[in-house]
Design brief:
The protein is α+β, with helices and mostly antiparallel strands. Helix content is 41%, strand content 14%. It has 7 helices and 8 strands; from the N terminus they run E-E-E-E-H-H-H-E-E-E-E-H-H-H-H. It has helices spanning 61-77, 85-99, 107-125, 173-184, 187-192, 197-211, 222-231, and strands spanning 2-3, 7-8, 33-38, 45-51, 130-134, 146-149, 154-156, 169-171. A 4-stranded mixed sheet has the order 5-7-6-8. Strands 1-2 form a two-stranded antiparallel sheet. Strands 3-4 form a two-stranded antiparallel ribbon. The protein starts with a strand and ends with a helix.
Length: 232
Amino acid sequence: MYGRQNGLLIAVARGAMKPGAKQAGQLEPLTMAQVMIAKGRNFDHLAVASHSRPRQSLTKLGALTAAGALADLYLKLIRPGVADERLFLLWEEYLECLSGLPDEPTSLRAELLFAAASLRLMDALGYGPALRNCALCRQPPGPTDAWYAPGINGLVCADCLSRYREAVMMAKAHSLTLMRFMREASLADVSRIGMTVEVAVNTIKIIQEVWQHAPLDKRPHGLETIAKFMAV
């Protein structure tokens, strides 16, 4: 569980899997609940759990897979004992956005929402990319395409590209605009914005590279999982 005041919490829900268990309906994944945890000698125990609000209706496959992808990323990056209300509010907003989707999202739209939420997560944890100025000359790259440099987690403009010796990838002007929008706008607005497939794919690829700056043991599987489930 990830709590607003206590961060990541791990506790044993003894007997919750038994038929007729009172807590079973209160412990569905990807829902909000109020809980009471009893300290134990070896493991903490979940004593009481109850829904704190009407359950989000994650009935669409794209919404479920996108939610599961972010949950996995949270668990890979967050450790018990450190609380950050921004992370709780991001998760809360993400669930509300996914449950409010009027139609089944396309695979690309679900991937983009996951990528947008992960970018906000990277920002909150201090691993977000620098997208305003060129990392070398410190000037805005202008209204043209630039290059994302994974080695410095920032941009290199056209004028400085020839003297940057490490690997770069194209960052289209509209992709940079979209990523800046993702940082400031609500996820609900991101779910409605129009864009070309080319811009969406380029944006997602850049965000994938940003993940490399976080202390991850292995690459998040969220994008691949969403694509595979949505292709069924």
